[in-house]
Amino acid sequence: MATKLPPVDVVIVGSGWTGGIVAKELAPTGLKVVMFERGRPQDTTPDFSGPQAHDSLKYSRRLHMVQDLSQETITFRNSMDQVALPIRQHGFYWPGTNVGGSGAHWSGLTWRWLEWEHKMLSGTVAKYGKGIIPEDMNLQDWPLSYAELEPYYDKFEKVCGISGKAGNIKGKNVPGGNPFEAPRQNEYPTPPMTASHTMMLFEKATQNLGYHPFPVPTANCSEDYTNPDGITLGQCHYCGHCTAFGCEANAKASPHFLMLPLARKNPNFQLRTNSTVVKVNLSSDGKRATGVTYVDARGRELEQPADLVVLGAFVTGNVHLMLHSGIGKPYDPKTNTGVIGRNYAFQGGGGAFLLLDKNTFTNPFMGSGALGTWIDDFNGDNYDFAKAGYIGGGGISIGSNSGDPLTYHPTLPGAPRWGKGWKQAMVDAYHHVAGIGHQGAVMSYRQNYFDLDPTYRDAFGRPLLRLTFDWQPNETKIMTAHSAVCQEIAGEIMGRKPGGPGGPRAIGHFNSAPYQTTHNTGGVVFGDDPNTSALNKYCQSWDVPNVFVLGSCVFPQNAGRNPTGPVGALAYWTAEAITKKYLKRPGALV
Amino acid sequence: MTDEATTDRRTLLKLAGLGLGVAAVPTAAAVAAQGEPAAAPPAAGGHDMAGMNHAAPVAGGEPRPGYVFLNPDEAAFVEAFVDTLIPEDELTAKGTDLGVAIFVDRQLYGGWGNGDRMYLQGPFLEGTPEQGYQLRLTPNQLVTAGIADVNDHVSATYAGNSFDTLEEADRIKVVTALESASIDLPTVPTRYFFNTLFQLVMDGFFADPIYGGNKGKASWKMLGYPGVGEMYADKIAEWRNRPYRVDEPLSIQDLM
Fold this sequence. Notes:
heterodimer, A: alpha/beta, FAD/NAD(P)-binding domain, 2 domains, 8-stranded mixed beta sheet, B: 256 residues, mainly alpha, 38% helix, globular, FAD/NAD-bd_sf (chain A), flavin adenine dinucleotide binding (chain A), oxidoreductase activity, acting on CH-OH group of donors (chain A)
């Protein structure tokens, strides 16, 4: 039996962006708040300081900041008629662990999603009619509009010191920014980062082709910046050790230094590391959470009673806790009913190889996780779905991210990958090649979902979360079309006809083994209808109103852009609903 | 410890801009991997370190480090494998002289080699290729079992020899056959064995020298990589389209 601890007011599961934002916003209330982190303590100093912070074997290959699969993993299958098997080694996504979560090892691309991306169903039907939506596609709207969320996007950008160039301020087009972006109230808090040579080649080529390039908005700060909370971010070093690493300069906005110091101003805030929450406990009628059960560093099972439970784990962690705790009706793909596990989506990708001449020098080691130039001409609903034959697009970009030879040692086409001639082929390629990539939206489908695995268990004895996912024709079409655009741009840069190596990622079935992206969405989606959503517009459980769930698990489908912008904005939105509404009158807010 | 796709994708991810959340782009490297194997270098003499349970001498006259995990037969195999992948040429010394075999030994002996962060609970079913690695073997079990398998194959095919005693041209033939999985190993799937050991050797060649490989930062100097200590905020614009080089790249050890 678990030892029962004295009760607290609020339990927060996870120390990443969402939990950090809620803890920080709750600090002025002085409530007793306990935050649980399954991983180790870590901070900029001492963990990310010194030359060891750039140890690419430790971080990029051994994935020191990514979850320990011996403790928790998921099982995977492409379709319902298969037996799902566990992801035994790090595969298609890298969920963070340790203090700061994925927010400590992320790259830093920080988008506002387009207006359409907040209303994919109604926006699509209004333009094209219902007939364009495939029967198995669970297209759903967000329960709040871009306009409602705009002030929270603004807040998150200011706290993180996002570097970028606005394209649309209060409906007015601003040169140099993204002409497709939704109206913003303000310019970005810091100017865009310095472009690399390859980014400038991409910019010129895409302009020649009639597209609209702009600098990616980054959480790698372009200059020293003090945010509205009084916390200073340093200027990015462009050191090329960003994705999968912690940042020694505090240039990469991360919750461990932007949120937790402020959460700690509350004397009643406590962070318990090496502590895994295994279950949300419910009252006997199942209508109220009574707290959580967790396993501490010594392996003891402890019960932490609380009045309010906020789930801020990674997508898979939140969905797992909801299913294992019995909060909300599990999704049934056969009848398309139930809500927990519904509408899982991933992202597509692909691209083109850019072979530059010997007199062109890329200096690939000068860069950062988010440094890049992007076009949105084929993203969101910025083109004609009826003409294209698919719904939802993607971003196309070039990045200057890392030239660390451990993970970046390309060769010229046709070269051997070992032995005689291999080293020379690398030398010839290292300073003279680049890649153009695309990141594609993935819609949600009846057959792509989470549930609990019938066979495999985690280190705590719980059934593993089971994922069933495969590419669908809509997404394969996006990836094929966008790979062709990447080839077109590569051809324009190289001054020759498009063609050569490169292509869509999705050839055949979705493969869970190679890393692709960490941008998972869905499973505990929010909405206006309790029959198709687990949460209301304040990310509050319809079934157990003292449980709030945050992160990209609430998105009803995925977009062709990175999720952290709306994840942060929604955490502020929900934190405000908790402090201004829920705490005054605990209960269902809708 | 990855399937073939992973190895190629990882390289590619950085190329395409992993940071951009942009995904894998099939590169020339990936395309090349499917193409013709490397031409055989001129045959060299037999492997003189065979059967000796210490590593080849490293550059700089340091004492020979001994192996902590590999037994003498396995060590001889790994040394021969390393030097087949990374032969001496005008660009670098051969892999064993760069500490790559020692790197492989230490990695296999450590937490990763013992599968410390893998999910290793059964049941163990074969699964589909899309379900990834499903063996109950840890990386060091996989590699040692594969070495024994390959040596059995070599012994049967080359009149009682082990892999490390083969002429260079024959070693290249065997490695090429392993890479294309045209040899079917009895204990471990050929692709998993080859890709795991291949990746380890690559990591030993490119990783920071603090792990025992990449002696003298040989691969970094070869590529013109300035090392881990540089900051480019005030250089990225100035050096656009001009080759930025340093005389001596800096490693973690250099900066401590």
